[in-house]
């Protein structure tokens, strides 16, 4: 039986999972590829820590060149994350004619435009299933069997840390800060959780999904990115009263040549399947012009699921190698020259329903003033709750709007916040309840 | 740009969808394949009905040889369904060196063992994503990115007709017969609904999933197949009381070299994501040794979603052709010689929890007699409901058991049904509430 030799850069949690999977299921993989897939070299600066796996002597090296420049290695797996030196390593692997498998969403979201043409020039594959949704085989599905569709929406719960926090806030009525602290103690959140909590990780993943689904380049910095740190248990409670749950959603939409790409806390109806995606699970939902709505659900992170996605990509490339093909599909699924650059819709132009929460002094006439200001900006009210009356003191007033334009919402809230009766900055949360 | 010519056999609903998709998204498909994919010929006995689509003159033919024997056609799509003449057409296409795409689960479940080696001998691909779950790209995922996993379970809601009926029974408390009648009027059920209602269609799909997930041949006739016609609104109501929903599930499990493959109404906890799959939607859930649990959800039937899956397979093959490869992957994903023949576990040996419903005359001591008989067969009771007391008349007694063996359940019920106090044949429904 033939042998395909691969190299791994980065022997952390995911790298260890990949090495374990390649050992544990070597026979199965050989049966599916028609060749032995062997991990020849692993490069990591730390060559001493015991990862709980036995490797043939000489496998582990601190010299990345042992992977990148070994002519026997045909596939390089990059799992160190971040921009540099990951980018240099990936480009060097490509220039040496090696296929690349990576889980590095940050790198691809920001530097894909440099990496993809380099891979095209060398005729090698760059695959990155593990970059979105952990083990969930969602990128392969866009590139593969769903490829005949024009997609109109792609939505997802893509960050396990945020979803874990929002789930516990929803189930226990707990506050953000308290749940974050427990999440950090349990290892579900990093010591510095900014990338997760503020939506940056989700935005990296959305950039990839939008590029793949709509065949367009995306300016990562133009993606509206809002995290969950300002969500209060009050908002979650009111959402429930109106039949909604709050999730951090990555939202991509295409209408003609206009694309929306945004990450923000979103209210979705409790009876949406997405609303039941709890804890560290991820889900991604597409609408295509022929397939209709389709959803994928599974573990969005962790050593084993992510290793499944990485090795799945290796198997794809190994089958090509055995079939004598170098490159069967471009990284975004489209011929490189067919990838366009569509404009992102400015957030002010977004239309939808909104949840508005005001803190107002409980005096006659306050509601008339608020609804008057909303009306001035063409915002009409679908329903309203005022909970806990307390004459002369501040009480929350919650309003659900009909379809409105975001720039009107912002202008109305700015005006309302100047009213003397308003005691706190007013808040809004976008609602997504009209999915085809 | 190169051109890849394909032929279609069967111009019914799905065939029309395929022709429409290939026309509507021709540019998109060309961008993804790097070649024009052209539908050169369509064979159907009915060449007169208006399908609402304009075809180039000479495309439609009543002579199947115009598709099967045209040397310019490299991919044949078979959409006539059934065993014959579908099987002869598929084998003739293969023998003429053409790749085959089919949605015909009945054909593959029963005659795959004849078709797959023929395709291997000719070095062509046989793809069948549309055979399971309509547009949901589940077979591609097993063959593709999830390939590194040893699967332990595959479960699915695979028949839209049954799921529509059970959903309406659950939501409205309606009876099976009434809902079936409406379903037939609405076109959700066939005039002769036996194949759907009695679980045969689901069993065909399960046979394919089990073969793909566990790499084994399956004797279709050995699959335990039970439909939904005996489910009463009383059972659905009791299920709700205990926190369950009733779904027609296809269940495949592998433990070592033993495989379970069975189709039957199943109670699942209401908080399982599968329990929220309602109406004509389908869902398939896997557990793999590395990926963990993963679920796919979408439209399981219909013209457009099924066309998406068929054309997705065509794109896969077209990319191979452009790359100069004939066959990149065997139909079951494993090298043909690696496919095994594992034994199916006899139903009597299945272990699980059970819902038992007795009709018993409401007299002191009846429960003691029933629980005594259960105890004799080593069946212990988790909980019990006796609703609506009516001294001396027949009332339902419902018992949920702990883990028990099916042969013991059957023996106990047979004994209990001989009691004078039992007025109707006792019923049981299997429970699935212990999914990893």
TrEMBL record, chains A, B:
One Gene Ontology biological process: threonine biosynthetic process
Positions with a binding annotation for NADPH: 105
Main EC class the enzyme belongs to: oxidoreductase
Catalysed conversion reaction: L-homoserine + NADP(+) = L-aspartate 4-semialdehyde + NADPH + H(+)
Top-level lineage group: Bacteria
EC number of the protein: 1.1.1.3
InterPro entries per the UniProt record, alphabetical: ACT-like_dom_sf (IPR045865), ACT_dom (IPR002912), Asp/hSer_DH_NAD-bd (IPR005106), HDH (IPR016204), HDH_cat (IPR001342), HDH_CS (IPR019811), NAD(P)-bd_dom_sf (IPR036291)
The protein's annotated pathway: Amino-acid biosynthesis; L-methionine biosynthesis via de novo pathway; L-homoserine from L-aspartate: step 3/3; Amino-acid biosynthesis; L-threonine biosynthesis; L-threonine from L-aspartate: step 3/5
Binding residues for L-homoserine: 190
Keywords: Amino-acid biosynthesis, Methionine biosynthesis, NADP, Oxidoreductase, Threonine biosynthesis
Active-site positions on this chain: 205 (proton donor)
Listed NCBIfam families: PRK06349.1
Protein name from the UniProt record: Homoserine dehydrogenase
Organism: Geobacter sulfurreducens (strain ATCC 51573 / DSM 12127 / PCA)
Organism ancestry: Bacteria, Pseudomonadati, Thermodesulfobacteriota, Desulfuromonadia, Geobacterales
Encoding gene, per UniProt annotation: hom
């Amino acid at each position: 039986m033939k042998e395909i030799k691969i190299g791994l850069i980065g022997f952390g949690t995911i790298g260890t999972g990949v090495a374990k999977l390649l050992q544990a299921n070597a026979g199965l993989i050989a049966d599916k590829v028609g060749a032995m897939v062997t991990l020849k070299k692993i490069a990591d600066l730390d060559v001493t820590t015991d990862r709980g796996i036995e490797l043939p002597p000489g496998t582990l090296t601190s010299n990345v060149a042992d992977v990148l420049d070994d002519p026997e290695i045909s596939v390089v797996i990059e799992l160190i994350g971040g921009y540099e030196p990951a980018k240099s390593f990936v480009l060097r692997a490509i220039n040496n004619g090696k296929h690349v498998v990576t889980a590095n969403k940050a790198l691809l979201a920001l530097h894909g435009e440099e990496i993809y043409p380099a891979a095209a020039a060398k005729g090698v594959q760059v695959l990155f299933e593990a970059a979105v949704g952990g083990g969930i085989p969602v990128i392969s599905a866009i590139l593969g069997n769903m490829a005949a569709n024009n997609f109109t929406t792609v939505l997802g719960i893509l960050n396990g840390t945020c979803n874990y926090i929002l789930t516990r806030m929803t189930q226990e009525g707990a506050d953000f800060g308290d749940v974050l602290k427990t999440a950090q103690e349990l290892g579900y959140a990093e010591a510095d959780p900014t990338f997760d909590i503020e939506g940056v990780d989700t935005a990296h993943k959305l950039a990839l999904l939008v590029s793949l689904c709509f065949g367009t380049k995306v300016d990562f910095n133009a993606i509206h990115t809002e995290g969950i740190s300002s969500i209060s248990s009050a908002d979650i409670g009111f959402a429930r009263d109106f039949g909604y749950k709050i999730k951090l959603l990555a939202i991509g939409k295409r209408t003609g040549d206009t694309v929306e790409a945004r990450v923000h806390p979103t209210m979705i109806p409790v009876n949406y399947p997405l609303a039941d995606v709890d804890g560290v699970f991820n889900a991604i939902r597409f609408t295509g012009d022929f397939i209709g709505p389709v959803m994928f659900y599974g573990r969005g992170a962790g050593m084993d699921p992510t290793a499944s996605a990485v090795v799945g990509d290796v198997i794809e490339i190994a089958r090509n190698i055995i079939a004598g093909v170098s490159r069967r599909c471009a990284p975004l699924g489209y011929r490189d020259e067919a990838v366009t650059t569509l404009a992102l819709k400015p957030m002010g132009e977004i239309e939808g329903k909104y949840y508005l929460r005001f803190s107002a002094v409980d005096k006659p006439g306050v509601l008339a003033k608020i609804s008057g200001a909303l009306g001035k900006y063409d915002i009409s009210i679908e329903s309203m709750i005022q909970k806990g009356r307390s004459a002369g003191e501040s009480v929350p007033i919650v309003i659900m709007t009909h379809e409105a334009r975001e720039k009107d919402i912002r202008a109305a809230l700015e005006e309302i916040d100047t009213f003397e009766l308003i005691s706190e900055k007013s808040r809004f949360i976008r609602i997504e309840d009209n999915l085809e």
